[in-house]
Design goal:
single chain; 8 helices; alpha/beta; Rossmann fold
């Protein structure tokens, strides 16, 4: 799994997550994003083209070191100041209340302990700051949910821990965030993989 995890999978994710059909969810999630932003799951920088002009700095956190190489062209073309600060969204090496906002896009589905990661985000995001998110996750349809639960074990093995059945809005609420707005709908592709939650949650 070492070569697959470290070399092959980041390239697959880079191609899949840079599609324009995924980009529209990223753009929607980033409406109103501003100031200093912490982004666990920065990956290969697929969010860079969508950052609003109001974003002044991004602290990037990601375990895939190869992602930095894959992000090189996007970083060179972006005016956003990006600083890589860590490898683990469950242990963000930033001071308390050091960020105006956070951004999660197709990341919380993979983090082994999502509540730990959300606790870290609450710690580093200033009170009143927002966590913007776009995640594929648990659908509303019971029949789709049944398929999601069935395929989760295989999904996790093939995509390094990625789940398709996590209820992201509920996880955010359990972590103490207050949902400001939230929309969900099916994107492109098979329904079990393409149900998208997008929105913004406030750190009270």
């Amino acid at each position: 799994m070492g070569i697959y995890r470290n070399q092959v999978l980041p390239r697959i994710i880079d191609k899949a997550c840079s599609l324009s059909t995924v980009g529209r969810w990223r753009a929607k999630a980033m409406v109103g994003l501003a100031g200093v932003v912490v982004e666990p799951g920065f990956g290969s920088g697929t969010n860079l083209p969508y950052y609003p002009d109001e974003v002044t700095k991004v602290y990037a956190v990601d375990p895939a070191v190869l992602g930095r190489k894959l992000a090189a062209k996007r970083l060179a073309e972006s005016s956003v100041d990006v600083e890589f600060v860590g490898l683990d969204g469950q242990d963000i090496p930033l001071p308390d209340n050091s960020c105006d906002a956070g951004l999660l896009t197709f990341t919380l589905c993979t983090i082994p302990e999502p509540m730990v990661a959300l606790s870290e985000l609450r710690r580093v995001i200033k009170p009143g700051g927002a966590l913007h998110f776009a995640e594929h996750g648990l659908a509303e349809s019971p029949s789709t949910q049944r398929w999601q639960y069935r395929i989760d074990p295989i999904q996790k093995r093939l995509f390094d821990g990625c789940h398709v059945s996590r209820n992201h809005p509920e996880l955010l609420r359990q972590a103490g965030f207050e949902i400001d707005w939230h929309e969900s709908d099916y994107g492109d592709g098979p329904s079990a993989w393409s149900y998208i939650h997008v929105g913004r949650a406030i750190n009270p």
